[in-house]
Write a structure and sequence with these properties.
7-stranded mixed sheet; 19 strands; binds zinc ion
Length: about 375
């Protein structure tokens, strides 16, 4: 079978032929891969900045944003059957008995850092025709989401962030109603998304669907299909080339939530200075090496204390975040059918993966499809 692999020593990204995997434990399922999304993490791995092959292997099969069909189930598999569509999670628990996070099935909160991640860290990924995995890492996809379920994994970033902050937002300040239903969690509150990549756009959709008055702020100038998507979901796009942060803050009023998805330290620091009273700042982007910048930490500390602010970093996602991502994809599809159709830029062959990953991203999300 075909797989897309990165060879670190020879610095190559290429399609390889390898033997298809077989079930070897009763709790496993055999997956036939349908779609695999590509993202910035794949670009870092294919630029040899990030990523580790499994121990003893000279290559890493990449791909972590997957949609697959179950084609065989082990004798102990209870929750799935042949023909089910699934989205697998990415992170696998560390081996330490004392890691409460991993031992309770929440490896996205792992304490030791010794977890593995399929397609990223010490475990082969999903950009292969067939994959074997344990049923406990599978998330069931309703058939109606076949076309867009490959977006579930990148959407879990926003879902995990929103799950963490919605409790906080509903209890602080204390006059808000903690019983408000999910689609009203952001009612009366403003959210500012930084960055217009897939994580930023999916974050904007999640926040808009939760009732926030949503703004997206990034460098890109129109015309741009990503800006069209922002407008189509009823959010407001503000171009950083034309509007400064103080101007933006004057336009929005009190900024209750900033969702950082640009991975740019200077941009994030400037944004932190316009976070509103009782505001929450969520960091999801991982910056690479960037120019050293000067800051005024005393001013930031003063603001954070005097304005009751929260700064929250979040990574990866748990099973409940996958469930809410799939529920939200369904909600997005009903609410913004035309916008949702533009999310997938195109489906391409595995042989085109290297060029797509290393080239300039066109559209919103490019997908490698098996069996095209
Ligand atoms: Zn990704
Ligand atoms: Zn752990």
């Amino acid at each position: 079978m075909k797989a897309v692999a990165v060879f670190l020593r020879s610095q190559q990204v290429t399609v390889i032929e390898q033997e298809a995997p077989r079930l070897c434990e009763p709790g496993q399922v055999l997956l036939r891969t349908l779609d695999v999304g590509i993202c910035g993490t794949d670009k870092e791995i294919c630029s040899f900045e990030y990523g580790t092959p499994p121990p003893g292997s000279d290559h890493l099969v990449i791909g972590h944003e997957s949609l697959a069909e179950i084609v065989q189930v082990g004798s102990a598999v209870e929750r799935f059957g042949v023909g089910d569509l699934v989205v697998p999670s990415v992170r696998r628990p560390c081996p330490h008995p004392g890691c409460l996070a991993c031992r309770s099935g929440h490896q996205d909160y792992c304490y030791t850092g010794e977890f593995t991640e399929r397609g990223i860290k010490e475990a082969h990924g999903y950009m292969a025709e067939y994959v074997v995995d344990h049923e406990r890492h599978m998330n069931l996809v309703p058939p109606g989401l076949r076309e867009i379920a490959v977006l579930a994994e990148p959407l879990t970033i926003a879902e995990k962030a929103l799950a963490q902050i919605s409790g906080m937002m509903q209890h602080r300040p204390p006059w808000l109603d903690p019983q408000a239903p999910a689609q009203e969690r952001g009612q009366g509150l403003s959210a500012l998304v930084l960055g217009i990549g897939p994580v930023g756009l999916l974050g904007a959709m999640t926040l808009a669907a939760a009732g926030f008055t949503t703004y997206v702020y990034s460098r890109e100038a129109p015309p741009n299909p990503r800006i069209d998507l922002v407008t189509a979901i009823g959010a407001t796009y503000v171009c950083a080339q034309a509007t400064t942060f103080p101007d933006l803050a004057a336009q929005i009023g009190n900024i209750d939530l900033i969702y950082e998805a640009a991975g740019h330290s200077h941009f994030a620091l400037q944004a932190l200075q316009v976070l509103g009273t009782n505001g929450i700042f969520v960091l999801t982007g991982v910056p690479g090496l960037q120019a050293f910048i000067q800051a005024d930490p005393a001013r930031l500390m003063r603001d954070m204390v005097l304005k009751n602010q929260v700064l929250l970093g979040t990574v990866n996602a748990g099973p409940e975040d996958f469930a809410s991502a799939l529920a939200d994809l369904d909600a997005f599809q009903r609410r913004w059918p035309d916008a949702v159709r533009t999310l997938i830029a195109g489906r391409y062959l595995p042989e085109q993966a290297a060029d797509l990953i290393l080239g300039r991203p066109a559209g919103i999300k490019s997908v490698i499809a098996f069996g095209l």
